[in-house]
């Protein structure tokens, strides 16, 4: 069960970890071996209830339950099963197809591939302290994937926000038109109205420029972050090949957590700027 716990430690929250446990149990009960055990037990209990005089009626069901328990146990303890379930659940929670903009969707897909390869590297590492250390080091990677997904999702929403994109294209023309109108207007009351409108447009333009700058920086950070995840994958390979020292290997976990926290700070900044941007012209 320790292997399963290690595998589930890479899942970012308790709710998802519970789902992974339920999914693994469901997989265990619906394996062909499980169906075969139940079927043979039922047939023997019905057609051959007492093959010997001393054979109690409850023995076939009892033996079937024991074999079924072994099937479930081997499913839970199997690393490949745990990897398959965890990867499936992460792809369901962070589904790249939710992101419509191709360049952002591809980054999520790339990040998930790196995560899958890291898990395969750990699963094929011989059991022992090294494998345990790699599992512990990978505990923050799923959270990292979640941050990458959230960042790509926000960038996708920005890119497809028709109002924001429309205003970004037209607001400078509106400012210029109002400024020219103000220069030619002599009526004080009308000038005051134009100045009010002009100040509002300038404020709008300033917010849009800040949002655009923030999103451009976020896009750069997304690219950089996925590349950093690829670097972590390379480091896992080096640890497995014993080409990194123990002290260097210990830094992996801290680096992964630091990246996740940094990404959360970026996401918070994106939210603040996006929320303050006007949503109408």
Protein architecture, described:
The protein is built from 11 helices and no strands. It has 281 residues and is mainly α. The longest helix is centred in the C-terminal third of the chain and has 53 residues, at 188-240. Mean pLDDT is 76; it is low at 1-13.
Count the DSSP helices. Answer: 11
* Residue fraction in strands: under 5%
Query: SSE order, as H and E?
Result: HHHHHHHHHHH
Number of extended strands: 0
Uncertain segments are 1-13
> Given the helix and strand composition, which structural class is it?
mainly alpha
> Which whole number gives the mean pLDDT?
76
What is the makeup of the main sheet?
none
| Count of the domains | 2
| Morphology | elongated
Distance linking N and C termini: 58 Å
Helix content: over 70%
Roughly how many Å is the radius of gyration? 29 Å
Write the layout of secondary structure elements.
Elements: H1 2-8, H2 14-29, H3 32-47, H4 59-77, H5 79-93, H6 102-123, H7 129-137, H8 141-159, H9 162-184, H10 188-240, H11 246-276
Helix pairs in contact: 1-5, 2-4, 2-5, 3-4, 5-6, 6-8, 6-10, 7-11, 8-10, 8-11, 9-10, 10-11
Summarize the structure.
The protein is an all-alpha fold. 82% of the residues lie in helices and 0% in strands.
Structural descriptors:
single chain, 281 residues, mainly alpha, 11 helices, 0% strand, disordered N terminus
């Amino acid at each position: 069960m320790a292997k399963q716990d290690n595998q589930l430690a890479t899942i970012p929250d308790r709710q998802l970890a519970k789902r992974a446990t339920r999914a693994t149990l469901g997989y265990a009960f619906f394996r062909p071996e499980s169906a075969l055990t139940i079927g043979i037990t039922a047939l023997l209990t019905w057609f051959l209830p007492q093959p010997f005089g001393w054979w109690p009626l409850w023995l076939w069901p009892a033996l079937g339950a024991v074999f079924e328990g072994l099937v479930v146990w081997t499913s839970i303890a199997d690393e490949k099963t745990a990897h398959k379930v965890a990867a499936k659940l992460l792809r369901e929670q962070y589904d790249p197809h939710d992101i419509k903009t191709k360049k952002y969707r591809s980054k999520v897909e790339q990040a998930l591939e790196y995560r899958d390869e890291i898990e395969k590297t750990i699963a094929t590492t011989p059991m022992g302290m090294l494998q345990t250390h790699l599992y512990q080091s990978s505990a923050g990677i799923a959270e990292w994937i979640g941050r990458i997904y959230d960042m790509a999702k926000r960038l996708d929403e920005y890119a497809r926000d028709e109002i924001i994109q429309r205003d970004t294209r037209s607001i400078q023309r509106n400012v210029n038109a109002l400024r020219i109108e103000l220069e030619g207007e002599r009526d004080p009351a009308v000038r005051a109205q134009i100045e009010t409108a002009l100040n509002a447009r300038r404020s709008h333009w300033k917010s849009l420029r800040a949002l655009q700058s923030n999103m451009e920086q976020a896009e750069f950070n997304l690219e950089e972050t996925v590349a950093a995840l690829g670097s972590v994958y390379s480091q896992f390979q080096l640890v497995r090949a014993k080409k990194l020292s123990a002290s260097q290997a210990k830094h992996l976990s801290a680096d992964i957590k630091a990246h996740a926290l940094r990404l959360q700070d970026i996401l918070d900044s994106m939210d603040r700027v996006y929320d303050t941007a006007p949503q109408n012209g």
